[in-house]
Amino acid sequence: MLFTQLYFWIFFAIVLFVYSFIYKNKPVRNAYLFIISLFFYWKTSGFFFVILLVSTLTDYLLGFKIYNAKKLTIKRSWLAISIFVNLFLLIYFKYAYFFTSSINELLGTHIEVINHFAHFTNVLYNTNFRVDAILLPVGISFYTFQTMSYSIDVYRGEVKPVKSFLDFGFYVSFFPQLVAGPIVRASNFIPQLYEDYHLTKREFGIAVFWILNGLVKKMFLADYIAVNFIDRVFSNPHSYSGFEGLMALYGYSLQVYADFSGYTDIAIGVSLLMGFRLPKNFDSPYKAVSTGNFWKRWHISLSTWLKDYLYIPMGGNRGGSIFMYIMLTIILFFITLIAASLWVALGLLVFVASMMVLARLIPMFKRWLITNINIMLTMLIGGLWHGASWNFVLWGGLNGVGIVVYKLWRKISPWESKNTWYKRAWAIFLTFNFITFTRIWFRSESFEKAAQLIHQIQYNFNFSIIPQVVTSFWKVFLVMIIGYIIHWLPGWFKDWYQDLFVKTPIVVKIIISFLAVFIIYQVMSADMLPFIYFQF
CA distances (Å), 41 to each of 2, 36, 197, 268, in order? Predict the structure, then answer.
């Protein structure tokens, strides 16, 4: 069920109609939205809604165990069980093929993937699910992180366990943000379950604005340039010139932003109409002046999750911890499996041992190493969260290197203290191009195709065909220019036209909405693409 389908909006209209009769009764309201959310997930992912229920029930029960445990060791044990269950589900469905193929290559075995959950279901309920294939449940990376954060927050004493299973289930499965975020913290969302419904006239206008804004981003910007240009180039990079490859790369930076932020804009707007406030997930990321600043603006809910539940527990910028060494071991293990080579494992061990020796001999290097290894580990884990392949390892690693290099440069830069428009413009230019460069590996279907694209840009740019390419794809390039201009507009100007829409009479809002939807569907691509982050 996609936000871009008429089917969804009919579904949402029915949901709102029933909601208008029950919204004042909070227990009934929460139970109703929980059931509706399960229905939504069932229509999106079929029988996988059972996995969502298992994850929800597990953390609901373990939340009480963690909270009521008197001894710290018992409390930690229950937390460890919660984390294990969540990671087991995530790893089983997302990384089963990766582990199987890596072990087969590494050890020369012939292990085959078997879907034990499907086999169990077939035996128990006499169903006919395939047992030779494991499909990825939509949104599993998002809701497992969400339930894990709940258990951790209960352990830390930041929230109390939710008494009602229906209330907790609603928190986990709230349908607008279920399959692609933003990742909602229990401490931010659960208190809203017990608040009276309230929606001001201004908030109603903002909600409608964000929905229209998200639809324009997704259907006018993202899908149009993807179908008509970007997907063709990335599917066969060797068939296109370096100039076309470079333009596809810039186009993809716009596409992935418009696609993902478009989803969250719609999710925020839809949630607000029902009286629930979701956190901001994007803050004009291509205005970032450094890689670190970019990650404070991009996918904010994931970035803050990684910071609060990985980076800081590993020691942050203060030093190392036992947890840091555990995560380092896990990352090295993953990289060894991806390489499928014992020589790589040996090389990594030698490299780590060399760094540890240097750290012991040079105290200043030790402080620098421990601080920055936490950044690198966090970014590498962020890369592996997206998928287990060299592409995502390199993408995450490059972003980590970008943050570390800027930290070093900031200490010696003679321009760091200067606050001029041209210095800021230059910093934005460099950051944007670096982030776009790293997306070669994020978007490419394989490491080989990423190498082909780089080769074409480096050795086959072919300046002579630029006028022909511009003439052939002028509509695509025009949409890209419009998209980037809108993105780089000053914040005050965006606030002005949002406020202008919000202040219009309801009749004008209706007319604008109908016109916007009509125009969007007139120019939309014939192929309706799923949101990019559904695959994660």
Answer: 11, 9, 24, 18
**How far separated are the first and last CA of the chain, in Å rounded?**
16
- pLDDT of 406 strictly over 80: yes
pLDDT at 517: 82
Of 392, 372, 371, 391, give the one whose Cα is nearest residue 380: 392
Q: What is the pLDDT of residue 524?
A: 67
How far out from the chain centre does Cα 35 lie? 25
Full-model pTM: 0.88
Between 55-64, 208-217, 467-476, 510-519, the lowest mean confidence (pLDDT) is in 510-519
CA torsion angle 406 407 413 415 (round to 10): 70
Is residue 526 pLDDT above 60, yes or no?
A: no
Q: Which of 438, 395, 412, 410 is nearest to 289 (CA)?
A: 410
Distance of CA 258 to the CA centre of its chain: 13
Please write down the HEC assignment for all residues of 93-158. Answer: HHHHHHHHHHHHHHHCCCCCCCCHHHHHHHHHHCCCCCCCCCCCCCCHHHHHHHHHHHHHHHHHCC
With beta carbons less than 8 A apart as the criterion, state whether 440 and 394 touch: no
| Dihedral in degrees, nearest 10, Cα atoms 52, 260, 206, 428 | 140
| DSSP class of 314 | T
Express each pLDDT in 88-140 by its tens digit: 888 888 888 777 777 777 777 877 777 777 777 777 777 777 777 777 778 88
| Amino acid making up residue 337 | L
pLDDT band, very low/low/confident/very high, at 340 (cuts 50, 70, 90): low
Please give the Cα distance from 197 to 206 (Å, whole number). 16
Percent of the chain scored above 70 by pLDDT? 98
- Digit-coded pLDDT (tens) for 206-231: 999 999 999 989 888 888 899 889 99
Say which residues have a Cβ less than 8 Å from residue 212's Cβ, sequence separation at least 6: 512, 513, 516, 517
Where b means 16+ CB within 10 Å and e means fewer, 116-153 reads: ebbeebeeeeeeebebeebebbbbbbbbbbbbbbbbbb
**Dist. CA 93–CA 134, nearest whole Å:** 6
Specify whether the CB–CB gap between 259 and 180 falls below 8 A: no
For residue 331, CA distances in Å to 97, 144, 247, 338, 380 come to 18, 20, 34, 11, 8
